Amino acid sequence: MNRIRTAPPRYWLVALTLVFFLGFPTVISSFLASEWTQALILAIAIMGLNILVGYSGQLSLGHGAFMALGAYVSAILAHRYKMDYLVTVPIAAVFTGGVGFLFGIPALRLSPLYLALATFALAVVTPSLIKRPAGLTGGVQGILVLQPDPPDFAREAFAFVTGTAMTSDQWIYYITLLLAVVLFWLAWNLVRHRPGRAMRAIRDGEVAAAASGVNVAGYKTLAFGISAFYGGTAGSLFALSTGFISPDTFPVSLSIQLLVGAVVGGLASIPGPLLGAIFAFFLPIGSNQWVPSQTWLPDQITSTVKNAGPAVSYGVVLILIMMFAPNGIVGLLRSGYVILNRRLRGASDPKTGQMPPDPQTV
Amino acid sequence: MALLEVRELSVRFGGVVALDRVSFDVDAGQVVALIGPNGAGKTTLFNVITRVYRPSGGTVLVSGRSVQTIRSHHVIRHGLARTFQNVALFRSMTVLDNVLVGDHTQTRSGWLQASVPLPGAVAAESASRKRALEMIDFVGLGAHAERPVATLPFGFQKRVELARALVSKPRLLLLDEPAGGISHEEVDAMARLLRRVHTDLDVTMLLVEHHMAFVMGICDRVVVLDFGKKIAEGSPAEVQRNPAVIEAYLGAA
């Protein structure tokens, strides 16, 4: 009991977030639930990218390629070999992780800018690469993925709460939520223990990290592998939630969207990818629907704004975030919390307060 | 057999000879200073010992084993830890996390054990934290363990770096200008701290330093480099009287 009362505020936040995500689909439409599923999938992929970029300091502009790989591995296994789709998710994740690990080995030899270019090239060629083996991938036709029906226990529980039948979309939402929670928890454990510290040390200074005994090459490739594992999981779930994948499902802009989400959410933080994913997923949709309704504007201007609207408002918001929240949404929230804490309690925060005098112990 | 043996070591960068057939030993239990004017090759020597640079000729032996056969991130496992001239801390991390990275080789838990957290990894983590906090206390920064290192003054950062090196339980500590860039009082405190490192933790030290009073105060032996060559070696008093050393520092009389 005492442990609950003295728990740091972040545990309360985690609990609240969990309750929110668990209860949300019971009050929104099945269609909205499937949108939130995709936001969660994006969050998983962005968490993978965050481990690579935020924690180990290697830039990737091509993480959509790992999502594509995971999606196709799952879809092919389920479609051609009639495997249960949920069984294919871990297979796709591990396979993609292995490929990412192998990709990380030549990446070691590249300077940061060239690594960015190489991963970007990967994202560019991915759609064409998928089209080639048409017998396997269905070429431009793509692959249809059958969405599973919810099992009885989930159906009954959902009906008990909402009084309506559970749809496949809602069932997929809960599968995604479960995997997202597990993967975020794993990432949180990873980054606050020895391997995560080693990765951050490499990001901050490779020579000093090696002098401390950190295997720089080993951890850099490991980060690539783990990152691709997350990407593969996300891709596999993505195919499941959309029910259909084709080469055009994984354009270059998907990779960019992932990076935008990682940066906007806040690099090297655990809640960052979730917030970044919600931003990166819903802002383009929101700005698409944004139409100026003022009647006094001339038609020409209205139509221009209508056409340019989504891209422009997306860009403007991005620039504003870069200006006012250089550490992402999480950085903004953290500094807000520190200021609020200082105002309310009047106490100096241990991280920002006055420097105490020199230690007298030596 | 000496703990560290430098044998006929040469390093060339293009046409520049940074080190020219330098030889000396560091015996276990000693505190040896490496002095010399700027550009004498002191930091280059450190970088060869810790496998940042390759020598063009000669060898460095650690307990009889050539460092050339040791991978750079394994050097610390052979009991060699170092600090850097202008402090190379992990700037986005806290004092504790920096020192915990120094403890990297004392634990083994890999990514799988850490992610799931298996009981072994959790136990290793808490033992690691305990060692790190003890070392942070030892260097006198106990009250600052949770602070980000970037917010600390330079003198404190040097101690964090010292703690990060010491937590790996080195036999030989390489210190690159431990008294460089810090205030007068901090220099004295650093000298006292290093004496305790030598006596309490039983660590052999090789240090590069310009601050002569500091060197004379804590070192048993001094090796003098000038333009990549060893020009003198001996006790602090001997070296101070050596005409070649006086000439190197003050120019020909």
Can you put this structure into words, describing what you see?
The complex is a heterodimer of chains A (about 350) and B (about 250). Chain A is mainly alpha-helical and about 350 residues long. Chain A has a domain at about 1-250. Chain A contains 16 helices and 2 strands. A two-stranded antiparallel ribbon of chain A has the order 1-2. In chain A, α2 packs antiparallel against α9. Chain A is globular. The model of chain A is unreliable at about 350-360 (pLDDT under 50). Chain B folds into 2 domains: about 1-80 and about 170-255, Rossmann fold; about 90-165, no CATH class. Chain B contains 9 helices and 10 strands. The mean pLDDT of chain B is about 90. The interface between A and B is large, with 37 and 56 residues.
List keywords for this structure.
heterodimer, A: 362 residues, mainly alpha, two-stranded antiparallel ribbon, 1% strand, disordered C terminus, B: 253 residues, six-stranded mixed sheet, four-stranded antiparallel sheet, 9 helices, globular
The largest sheet of chain B has its strands arranged as 6-7-8-3-9-10
Radius of gyration of chain A: 22 Å
Tally the beta strands of chain A.
2
Secondary structure: helix percent of chain A = over 70%
Q: What percentage of residues of chain B falls in helices of 4 or more residues? A: 25-40%
Number of domains of chain B: 2
What's the average pLDDT of chain B? 92
Write down the CATH topology of the largest domain in chain B. Rossmann fold
Based on secondary structure, the structural category of chain A is mainly alpha
The H/E string of chain A reads HHHHHHHEHHHHHEHHHH
Beta-strand content of chain A: under 5%
Q: What overall form of chain B do the CA principal axes indicate? A: globular
Shape summary of chain A: globular
Give the total of beta strands of chain B: 10
Q: In the CATH hierarchy, what is the superfamily of the largest domain in chain B?
A: P-loop containing nucleotide triphosphate hydrolases
CATH architecture assignment name of the largest domain in chain B = 3-Layer(aba) Sandwich
Structural category of chain B is alpha/beta
Task: State the major sheet of chain B.
Answer: 6 strands, mixed
Mean pLDDT of chain A: 88
